[in-house]
TrEMBL record:
<dbReference type="InterPro" id="IPR051783">
    <property type="entry name" value="NAD(P)-dependent_oxidoreduct"/>
</dbReference>
<dbReference type="GO" id="GO:0005737">
    <property type="term" value="C:cytoplasm"/>
</dbReference>
<dbReference type="InterPro" id="IPR001509">
    <property type="entry name" value="Epimerase_deHydtase"/>
</dbReference>
<feature type="domain" description="NAD-dependent epimerase/dehydratase">
    <location>
        <begin position="3"/>
        <end position="210"/>
    </location>
</feature>
<protein>
    <recommendedName>
        <fullName>NAD-dependent epimerase/dehydratase domain-containing protein</fullName>
    </recommendedName>
</protein>
<dbReference type="InterPro" id="IPR036291">
    <property type="entry name" value="NAD(P)-bd_dom_sf"/>
</dbReference>
<dbReference type="Pfam" id="PF01370">
    <property type="entry name" value="Epimerase"/>
</dbReference>
<dbReference type="GO" id="GO:0004029">
    <property type="term" value="F:aldehyde dehydrogenase (NAD+) activity"/>
</dbReference>
């Protein structure tokens, strides 16, 4: 296949590029050339998808059998790309998010769940952030003349991860000592390796499939405790987890999801955080590697990369609890637990 990948230089986009090259496809990447070198074995076209002239030049470089868009976040921007590439590719595969579904995270979701309202030409300031991906999906559906395939991933992990949730846990375990762990070790989680999304997406394109697929790990098979145990095991620093109840952590001013990654409050507002159904994708061939493999591979890559230049961030929020704050909360929990 002749494939165009918009982005392709970081994390999920790079996973798609690597897998497509490994399969022997002809791969063109379109990006600004600012996020890292393009992978060997690809053709590079550097430009800005916000620039009409760059999009016009990109369209002229086609046609392609398929477009893979892993870097669309704003409806108007995605709409411009969809218009420019309409008629220049057979299929447009757009990587979206769980965030498009109105019930999530309060309730379980699948492909039939209602999407958040957001028009295909919405500006960033027009709608809440979580709805923007829904507008991006509608932009592809409305403006691209060809087959449309949409993937809705949950939390994505693996080597080269951004924003760095799993990376933070691995680095924290590598420092050793007592590690503050949130809530219950038995809380189930759903994570998916970026490489598994790439493999599944390319499988769909190769078979000519279209439609919408919710892609995440299986429900009720992996726990937060198992994830943290695996992080401690592969780092080998002798770290021990100290589990504190979520109500206590909230009292101490700790925030879920960001300060202690993968911690979803067991409250109605987040009751569906780990209850998405990937059944349709599994039936279509989605295969998820063991979480232990993802953790081990990510740690190996992390050791090769070395320390990060800056804290991991989700938007403006720093991922991971401050070490001094963690020590204070651990002391407070020991005092409370002892009596």
């Amino acid at each position: 296949m002749n494939i165009l990948i918009i982005g392709g230089s970081v994390f999920l986009g790079r996973a798609f590029v690597h897998e497509a090259v490994e399969r022997g496809h002809s791969v063109t990447v379109f990006n600004r050339g600012k996020s890292g070198p393009d992978m060997a074995g690809t053709k590079s076209i550097h430009g800005d998808r916000e620039n009409a002239a760059d999009l016009e030049a990109l369209a002229a470089a086609g046609p392609w059998d398929a477009v893979i868009d892993t870097s669309g976040f704003h409806p108007r921007t995605v709409g411009r790309s969809a218009r420019a590439l309409s008629g220049r590719a057979g299929t447009y595969l757009f990587v979206s998010s769980f965030h498009v579904y109105d019930p999530w995270p309060a309730g379980p979701v699948d492909e039939s769940s209602e999407r958040l309202p957001c028009p295909p030409d919405a500006a960033v300031e027009d709608v809440p952030g979580n709805a923007l991906k829904a507008g991006c999906e509608r932009a592809v559906e409305e403006y691209f003349d060809g087959e449309v395939c949409i993937l809705n991933p949950g939390l994505i992990v693996g080597p080269r991860e951004t924003p760095g949730r799993l990376l933070w846990w691995l680095e924290r375990m590598a420092r050793g000592g007592e590690v503050l762990a949130p809530g219950r070790a038995e809380q189930t989680i759903q994570l998916i390796d970026a490489r598994d999304i790439a493999e599944f997406g390319l499988d769909l394109l190769q078979t000519g499939a279209a439609g919408r697929y919710l892609v995440t790990g299986p429900k009720d098979t992996t726990t937060l405790g198992e994830l943290l145990e695996e992080c401690a095991r592969v780092t080998g620093a002798g770290a021990t987890t100290v589990w504190a109840p979520e109500d206590f952590l909230v009292e101490q001013g700790l925030g879920p999801w960001v300060e202690l990654p993968f911690w979803a409050l067991e409250q109605p507002a987040m009751a569906g955080a780990w209850a998405a159904s990937p059944a349709k994708a599994v039936a279509a061939g989605l295969r998820c590697r063991p979480l232990s493999q993802t953790v081990a591979d990510t740690w190996e890559w992390l050791r090769e990369r070395g320390p990060a230049d800056a804290p991991y961030r989700q938007g403006d929020a720093v991922i991971g609890v401050d070490p001094d704050k963690e020590r204070e909360v651990l002391r407070a929990w020991r005092a409370k637990a002892s009596g």
